[in-house]
């Protein structure tokens, strides 16, 4: 997959100005240069282009808010002077596994006054005598080189990035918002239980109504049966009276 297509996929229907983190690792860069990345990514703070075949960073757009740039496992051998102009607030730069052979190549990085961490693992420059001391002298603003400071103390949490800390803060803020949303009256589980209880109450009421309706129907049937019996008894009484009257008339005739 080429870099332009990968950037399009990574956007996920967002606009470039909404993106703070962009990972393009292992895609393909045509002619060894960055493609598809524009200065519209004005909020970008973290960019990773590991193993994409880069030979130059000359086509990097202006990214004023970029703090961390991952360029490891490419074929970059120079041209780093553009970084001070394109990424003036860069704090972490990883150039491990590139074609950097001498100190003059990284000399332009001294213009990056905010640069605190630099990684050059697996670059030929690391084989030079007094490599570490010379890099710290060349770039006095550095705190960590290849994960260690001047006193060979390891960076906390493997060179904990300011960018990562910023992301953690954002996640904590989101968690706080979520807790506030769920903490209004009851937890989601409690709401489900209450809804379940309400449904049970409604079912019980419906059952009671059905039972009461059946009782009323039974009462109506009983009343109807009583009325029918009364009518039959009244008819029998009238019939008996007619028979007696007829007998009386016969006696008079005799």
UniProtKB/TrEMBL annotation:
Residues 147-254 are annotated as: Disordered. It comes from the Eukaryota. It is found in: Nucleus. Coiled coil: none annotated. GO terms for cellular component: nucleus. Multifunctional protein that is involved in the regulation of many processes. The keyword Phosphoprotein does not apply. InterPro entries: AN32 (IPR045081), Leu-rich_rpt (IPR001611), LRR_dom_sf (IPR032675), U2A'_phosphoprotein32A_C (IPR003603). Residues 147-156 have a biased composition (Basic and acidic residues). This is Acidic leucine-rich nuclear phosphoprotein 32 family member. Belongs to the ANP32 family.
């Amino acid at each position: 997959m080429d870099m332009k297509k990968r950037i399009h996929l990574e956007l996920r229907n967002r606009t470039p100005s909404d993106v703070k983190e962009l990972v393009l690792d292992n895609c393909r860069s045509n002619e060894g240069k960055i493609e598809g990345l524009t200065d519209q990514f004005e909020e970008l703070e973290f960019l990773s282009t590991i193993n994409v075949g880069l030979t130059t960073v000359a086509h990097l757009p202006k990214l004023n808010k970029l703090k961390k740039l991952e360029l490891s496992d490419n074929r970059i051998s120079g041209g780093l002077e553009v970084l001070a102009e394109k990424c003036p607030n860069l704090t972490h730069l990883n150039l491990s596994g590139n074609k950097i052979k001498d100190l003059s190549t990284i000399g332009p990085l001294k213009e990056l006054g905010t640069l605190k961490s630099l990684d050059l693992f697996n670059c030929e420059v690391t084989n030079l005598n007094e490599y570490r001391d010379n890099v710290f002298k060349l770039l006095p603003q550095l705190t960590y080189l290849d994960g260690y400071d001047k006193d060979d103390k390891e960076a906390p949490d493997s060179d904990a990035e300011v960018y990562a800390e910023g992301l953690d803060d954002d996640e904590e803020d989101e968690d706080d918002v979520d807790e506030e949303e769920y903490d209004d009256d009851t937890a989601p589980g409690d709401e489900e239980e209450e809804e379940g209880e309400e449904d049970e109450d409604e079912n019980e009421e419906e059952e009671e109504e059905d039972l009461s309706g059946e009782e009323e129907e039974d009462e109506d049937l009983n009343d109807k049966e009583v009325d029918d019996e009364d009518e039959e008894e009244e008819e029998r009484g009238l019939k008996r009276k007619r028979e007696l009257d007829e007998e009386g008339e016969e006696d008079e005739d005799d």
